[in-house]
Amino acid sequence: MTEKNQQEKNAAERQVELLVKAFDKAQENGGVWLNKDGKKAPQFYLKGVTVSPFNAIILGLHSDQSNYKTNEYTLFTEAKKRGESVQSGQKGVPFYWYNWNEYQSKADPEVKISRDEYKALTPEQQSDYKGIRNREVRMLFNIEQTILPMVDKDAFDKEVKERGRLSDRGEIKATSSEISINDFILKTRDNLVAIRLDTTGVAHYDAQKDTAYVPKRENYEHYNDYVNALVEQVVAATGHAQRLNREGMNNRGGKAPSEDAQKRELLVREIATAAKMQEFGLPAKLSEEGMKNIEYWKREFKEDPCLIDAIEKDVNNTLDMIHKAERGEKVEKRQLNAQDVEAPKTIIPKHYYVADEIKTLPNKDSKEMVIVRDAGSKTADVVLPAGASLAVDNEIPGMNKKRIEHALQKEGFDTVKFYNTDGSLGFHPDDSYFDCKEISVSKLNKWELEDITKLDVTDAVKRSGAIDFDKVLMLKDDEGKWAMYLKPENEKAFSVYPDKADVNKFFTTIQQGNDEANERLRQDMATKYYVMASEKPELKVDLFKSQASAEELARIERVNIFKTKATENKPSVILCVPTIDGKRVQAREVSGQQWQRMWLADDKQDYKTHLAASLFADVLRKERTEAVAVGTDKTEQEAQADTQEQTKNVENHEEETKQEQKEEQAATNKKQEEEKRRNSPEQKEKEKQEEKAKEEATKAETKAVAAVALSPMLKQFLDLKSKHPDALLLFRTGDFYETYKEDAEKASKILGITLTKSTKTKDEQGKPLAMAGFPYHALDSYLPKLIRAGERVAICDQLEAPKQTAKRGISEMVTPSAAPEKEQKTEPDKQQSFHR
């Protein structure tokens, strides 16, 4: 950008001053920051010429803050010619005046002609030239700053009545503005962006659908608020990638806009919305989000002298597009080209863990800053809580930049750079930047720097070239083929089919029992297939969808999947019972792999529907061949026998559910009757007498409790718990991870699972054992929740080898999958691993 002259610098400072003062005032006026009195839009007095949107904002703010009755402005020379000179001592407001006095050849930029020469050309010849825009700063004065009210009071009063405050425009009815606003809605809806009624009660713009959603007018306390919300969404739509393509509005190369870009986009929206509200003659109000960012914007204006120019350009372009739509001109979307969309790259994503941590450390109150020293290059980065710019004097007391720079130069650092925690001068390098650098939190002690603490970022730097994965698992598809399931951090999960050699290597490493080697292999293999899938998206497979059509899926109304109880003759099985076309279908068996995938699916209900579509494909297609479960080798007779057995299991399951509901209701009724009886005066007196007897019996009961026979399982749990009292112990029993006693109470609250009391198992005090558990397949879902809640978690797995007695050990669960094509052996060694 061309360097500004002093006149332009002064104008920019004055504009920023007016904006900042208005934002501060908004906090007192319930968010209203422009045109509080409802004056007509600014224009030139007598000439009736409207001004550009950004100039109109500045003139409107000047008029509001000076409490003038109109937004009518004039040049000093023009007022003097009319005999209405500007009063002495008056301070004007800067106004950007653009003219096109020269035109430049499109073929040869060196060839320039004057405006008169350009006007003498034919239309065909004119198309070979483009205008050169020159900006001048001129000062304008409100008509109340002139002697007009004194020399021609009637003319002044006329202007006030026609274009003054809403209270002064007596004959102007509110319905006239509503008509113009209705016309605005119709024109922008037809020519710019679709406008739909929102049912959530929150106005918003959906960039993917390119639609502005606005709630009903009745949802707003004031009509002005409704119009403000409507205009704001239309303004947002102008920033679409195929319209104005503002950085804070659109994803670039698949990456979401930075936080700073989004805040700048919000500022454009607020100012452009205010400009349009002023055109309607209505007050403009900052949004709730805008109110939260006032301090950020104020600092950015102070730190970045060119920000006001960028805002002017965006605001003017925004309103120009809206005006075009209002004139009935269709705003066609332009085609995206290669410059608009970055080519996909398969480089490893960068991490910013260190910079994000540094962002939280500078403190204005304690005068603490972060210093990143690079002894090799003799440079130092200083991160301040605010005031990094050297262009303006905005020092924080106790954090003088000259003293900081002098202290670092004494240490031998030739180059010192200053940054803020965010904004245009924000400090946000990726983790690899901090290799071989020293990071410290420091304070300025007179002319010396005092390091309070140092940050060790070695691990973050080592991991800077890696991708973080939430999950890396091996799963089998319905055909028994192994697939690698990957869930990259902050991205959607997907699966790929790895090479057979990688599958064997994966499980061989697991069998060796070396956790460090296993984790390293998982990371390397996951990274390899992540990059491959990025280069060739067609490698990705979806293990959670079926081949069923939308019509077939729509016929599946309900899907029930559950485990049957094991008996002496038959083990427990997992059954799927769907309701298709309103009829419950006979149950079919679900494989272990299908059951495992259900716990990994992002949408479990959707997965169940697709699973039912796969298992009951013959029913959906009405092509009954054999009454055999899909994917089995059973004879028809065996299948029919199993079907009868499964039907019986379903009926038993439903009967047990009904019986449990009856028992719960009976227990509730009994509890209510007992409560009534306990509240009676006679019962209370009796309870007092019995309390004394109970106290006498407590010691004897305690001794008796000590003799209670504990189950082997509970003994083992208590033994492990005594070794790890500060950890929440997940105890594997069969297909579930169970928690007991105090751990069960914690887990039920954190995970939202049911807390129960065992009627059979007693704790060491002889009371019913408190229990809470979840299926072992769901460990990857529940474990992060416990860790995020601040719990230290120990996992006790049941390790079983074929034809051996079951043993237990505390270890990290690697994967619920079994090894491929061969028996997976498990060492009986006990290992201990904790998650924090």
Structure description:
The protein is of the alpha+beta class and about 850 residues long. It folds into six domains: about 1-170, no CATH class; about 185-270 and about 280-335, no CATH class; about 355-460, no CATH class; about 465-540, no CATH class; about 555-650, no CATH class; about 710-835, DNA repair protein MutS, domain I (MutS, DNA mismatch repair protein, domain I). It is globular, with a radius of gyration of 37 Å. The relative contact order is 0.05. InterPro entries: ArdC_N (IPR013610), DNA_mismatch_repair_MutS-lik_N (IPR007695), DNA_mismatch_repair_MutS_N (IPR016151), MPTase-PolyVal (IPR041459). GO terms for molecular function: ATP binding; mismatched DNA binding; single-stranded DNA binding. It comes from Prevotella pectinovora. This is DNA primase.
Structure at a glance:
With 836 residues, the chain is α+β, with helices and mostly antiparallel strands. A hairpin with a 4-residue loop joins strand 8 (204-206) and strand 9 (211-214).
Topology summary:
Layout: H1 6-26, E1 32-34, E2 43-44, H2 53-65, E3 72-75, H3 76-81, E4 93-105, E5 112-114, H4 115-119, H5 123-126, E6 129-142, H6 148-151, H7 153-163, H8 174-191, E7 194-197, E8 204-206, E9 211-214, H9 223-238, H10 259-279, E10 284-285, H11 288-292, H12 294-303, H13 307-326, H14 353-359, E11 368-374, E12 379-383, H15 401-410, E13 415-419, E14 438-445, E15 448-455, H16 458-462, E16 469-476, E17 482-488, E18 494-496, H17 500-512, H18 515-535, H19 550-554, E19 556-563, E20 574-580, E21 583-584, E22 588-589, H20 592-600, H21 604-615, H22 617-620, H23 636-678, H24 681-706, H25 712-723, E23 728-733, E24 736-740, H26 741-751, E25 756-762, E26 768-775, H27 779-788, E27 793-799, E28 807-810, E29 834-835
Parallel strand pairs: 2-3, 7-9, 12-13, 23-27
Antiparallel strand pairs: 1-10, 3-6, 4-5, 4-6, 8-9, 11-12, 11-14, 14-15, 16-17, 17-18, 19-20, 20-21, 20-22, 23-24, 24-26, 25-26, 27-28, 27-29
